[in-house]
Amino acid sequence: MPELPTSNPKQFVQGAPVLHVQDVLATAAFYRDVLGFACDFGDDTYAVVWRDNSAVHFVKDGTSPRGIHLFQWVKDVDAYYAEILDRGANVTKQPTNQPYGIREFSVSDINGVNIISLVKISSPLNNDAMPFSNDTVVAALRKLVATRVPGSSGGFVIFSANDREYVQFSLEPAGLMLFWPAEGPAVPARDPRVTDLLRELSFHEVELRSKSDRPSTLNYRAYVKLSDGLYGQFGDDIELTERFTTMAFERVFGHLTATLNSQIEV
Questions:
Q1: Domain range for residue 240?
Q2: CA 198, 200, 201 angle in degrees (round to 5)?
Q3: What is the pLDDT at residue 143?
Q4: Consecutive 10-residue runs of the chain (266 residues): their mean pLDDT?
Q5: Fewest C-beta atoms under 10 Å: which of 43, 121, 189, 253?
């Protein structure tokens, strides 16, 4: 079983869910071989897997679990994603910066349980309310781009009028990447107004060649629709990014707000 956490908690040492599954050994093998857990106890009726301070129990049942989500806080989301992707994990959501300060991805196990790995994003550059204008959007984008480390992914910027109306971009090696979530915004990614706006700006839709491909491989002015949302590559074109942002608030959300919140994190 896991050793005690080094954080020396005052009382609670660990919590562990017990999942009812049809095939205990196959499930434990998936968590071991794909997700990198250890398994030091198990038979065809009950098994326990663990990794660091996280444990999951499985008990044999005639039905599979339904509506279950497992949240796992990790230290390096992208490193863990790369690790299990090489082992054939069934990715249901690629690593994504969320507007509430979390970077996360999710995979599905052999029983359909959604496993979400996440980490808190730190080091905010600013979280300012500012007048909505072309100049202030450009200034925020330039501030983000200035943090770039060549060849690596960086931070992100979120422009928001409120918690349901926002446009966000991450800083990828190829440039500024739009992510429009399938769920969360007042206007989700499936709304045709989002893709109509991209096409008006000369974007074209593509498909990823394989499950191992990531949206960060998109070329300039290309976009792809995945289960978790829409991704679009703006490259280093700050003017184009500003135009899309302004037009999105005006024509997708239906208004231009007087005040815009700008949150930049790296």
A1: 124-265
A2: 65
A3: 84
A4: 55 85 95 93 92 92 86 87 90 77 86 83 50 74 80 75 86 90 89 96 90 79 92 95 92 77 70
A5: 43
Task: Please give the Cα distance from 220 to 238 (Å, whole number).
Answer: 12
Q: Give the burial string for 110-137 (b: 16+ CB within 10 Å, else e).
A: bbebebbbbbebeeebeeeebebeeebb
Q: How many CB atoms lie within 10 A of CB 57?
A: 18
Q: Are residues 96 and 171 in the same domain?
A: no
Strands ordered across the beta sheet of 38-42: 18-21, 54-60, 46-51, 38-42
154 and 244 housed in the same domain: yes
Residue 110 backbone dihedrals phi, psi, to 5 degrees: -70, -10
Q: Say if 6 falls within a structural domain.
A: no
Residues near 48 by Cβ (< 8 Å), separated by ≥ 6?
Answer: 1, 16, 39, 40, 41, 42, 55, 56, 57, 58
CB 227 within 8 A of CB 106: no
Closest CA to 237 of 151, 159, 141, 162: 141
Token pair, residue 210, equals 């394989």
Clarify whether residues 97 and 152 are in a common domain: no
